[in-house]
């Protein structure tokens, strides 16, 4: 199954797509350090990914005409215009690459597409523009005129869409997914837009997550299995706050609640077997290097080790400390190493990151968690293969 990956970044979505059975006909990324990360992993002793055709260039100048029989287009259009921590310029931001995502769909005519973006895209401020994105993806051939504003184009799209009685080129759905529900040791909410070409006549819905917070709380405070597995003595365990205590009491009374689910994964689950980075003298784990200078301040207190991590962020100016720190019970904090951050994003241990620490952390902060990407991609792949068998 041939695919094209746009805005590839460090490769989280690309790896997830590959794990789900897709073969990239092109991987497109303009950032040099991110491309160097790809190249590093396509050569040498690790060679942790296949040698996909990598194009280090601006997607706005990419020619799709040589690419044939592409089944899926995927990518994470740069999210800074819609980020809660950014300037919130949205469609006015030159970094908004959704028009290029639509162009790729229009020119390649894939059977499906998978696009990912930040939760901020759903903010009320961007509601009109988000509707516009969905309409464009549903009707990618209905292009914007040169003299036309996006709002004027949206009005024409709405009229066109309603006049066709929902006969779209692509049937598009979206959902806000929490990566923690899909086996990622991180609370990371992201919007996924998935579309299938309407002539395929497929039925699809987002896969449900197999993990839950209730099962984590139960394993910690009802059965104690979590602490036993990690050999954490009672005196070293955190204290339950009042809100959690009420939830735990309900879980004690209802042993079947979320019984079919697995527990959320925590920071300790993800990095507990890694050596202290200050003592990683033999460098047995690549990219596992201690960085000093972490400090806690109001609103930026790090991620408790026995919970899923807070959302790793890229930041416009250096590494955001509060989101990218590990918080110990005694109140001390330290920065996550690149390897620890990669684990929190579910990258394989043999995947290396190029560039300085701040650059590598920026790549990771922008990445799609591999495990979440693979779950969505496998569901899409299964549906496409089923549709192919029915032809």
Task: Provide a quick synopsis of the model.
The protein has 12 helices and 12 strands.
Strand fraction band? 5-15%
CATH H-level homologous superfamily name of the largest domain? Vaccinia Virus protein VP39
Structural class, please? alpha/beta
Mean pLDDT: 89
What profile does the largest beta sheet have? 7 strands, mixed
Overall morphology: globular
Number of helices: 12
Describe the protein.
The structure is a single chain. The protein has 391 residues and is of the alpha/beta class. It folds into 2 domains: 2-209 and 367-390, Vaccinia Virus protein VP39 (Rossmann fold), CATH 3.40.50; 217-260, no CATH class. The chain is built from 12 helices and 12 strands. It has helices at residues 12-19, 32-40, 98-108, 127-138, 150-163, 213-221, 225-230, 242-253, 267-271, 338-344, 357-366, 370-390; strands spanning 2-6, 23-29, 54-56, 72-75, 112-118, 170-178, 189-197, 211-212, 262-263, 303-304, 325-327, 333-335. Strand 2 (23-29), helix 2 (32-40) and strand 3 (54-56) form a beta-alpha-beta unit. The longest helix is centred in the C-terminal third of the chain and has 21 residues, at 370-390. The chain is globular and about 65 Å long.
Describe the secondary structure blueprint for this structure.
Blueprint: E1 2-6, H1 12-19, E2 23-29, H2 32-40, E3 54-56, E4 72-75, H3 98-108, E5 112-118, H4 127-138, H5 150-163, E6 170-178, E7 189-197, E8 211-212, H6 213-221, H7 225-230, H8 242-253, E9 262-263, H9 267-271, E10 303-304, E11 325-327, E12 333-335, H10 338-344, H11 357-366, H12 370-390
Parallel strand pairs: 1-2, 1-4, 2-3, 4-5, 8-9, 10-11
Antiparallel strand pairs: 5-7, 6-7, 11-12
Helix pairs in contact: 1-12, 4-5, 6-8
